[in-house]
Amino acid sequence: MPAGSEAAAAQAVEPLRRAAAAGRLAHALLIVGPPRGQGLAAAERILQMVFCQTPAGACGECRGCRLVQRHVHPDVRWLEPTSVSRQITIGDAANPEGDPGIRFGLLQPLNRSAIEGGWKAGVLLAADRLTPAAANALLKTLEEPPPQTLLVLVTDEPQRLPATIRSRCQEIVVRRGVESAPEPWRSRWLDLLAAADDAGGPLGGLAAAARLSALWDEIETAAPESEEGPEPADADVVRARRRAAFLEIRRLLIQEWLGWERDVLAVSLGAPTEMLRNADRLDALRRAAAVRPPAAVFDRIRRIGRMERRLALNFPHASALAAALRGGADETGPRTSGD
Fold it and tell me: Which CATH superfamily is domain 3-173 in?
């Protein structure tokens, strides 16, 4: 886990330390943060507070802390989307091994006695991907949780969870400030954004969109399936985790794009250099500001928001990027309800 994620997670969950030590920890926590970044780090740290075998809590060195960090503690169940559809199902009673879903992969095991005594915990990564049936099953457990059981939900899109679930969880926000996309993808992405501004014209925009799309294809191929925990044997799980890793990097790159647009706007308005996120690319920002006035920058920001909505609906990213880089009446393709 990156050091920045660990530091942010530790700061966010520190108020829970006294509650965990006193045995007054809420039975359900909703961590708002990337399920493969700060959100995951916060979940791991909270579980270490619960399962640490030293008075300090979350020492990171004892057997309990090490098992939590490796995701192999016998009294902790981890669940995440395990299909390319990125859904968490309720589970197939006729085939619980092939499709355990939330019922057989998380909820039923939590109703059993703890293997090592004491607390049991279940972690739901990317909790916003619950199907309606799975959400209803989780809600029933939240309403009547087993004794000494902690449920931890992790998502960076809490608004997609049913209000009935959110209201029964203590919310912890760990995604603060502006996160940076990982290298080398961030630098390559910014290079392509600068080249897109230099190209200009409809054909230049289409060519720039093709290059950005090709980079996303490369990232999806190269994205690691998991940073922590044992290697899963199921090929569908591997593909789902690789997809999750790619989607997190893609989200961060879109945030970098919005940061780039704000920098272009700031340069247009004569803002001081120290206000820029990408001050090291000042020459490229000045060139972009020279060809795109503030009204065009605001339009681009609006189009990036529309692109995000389309990507959430599984539009091909090549066409979504092309629409974001085109202007005005030449935009084609379906329009979503939020457009």
Answer: P-loop containing nucleotide triphosphate hydrolases (3.40.50.300)
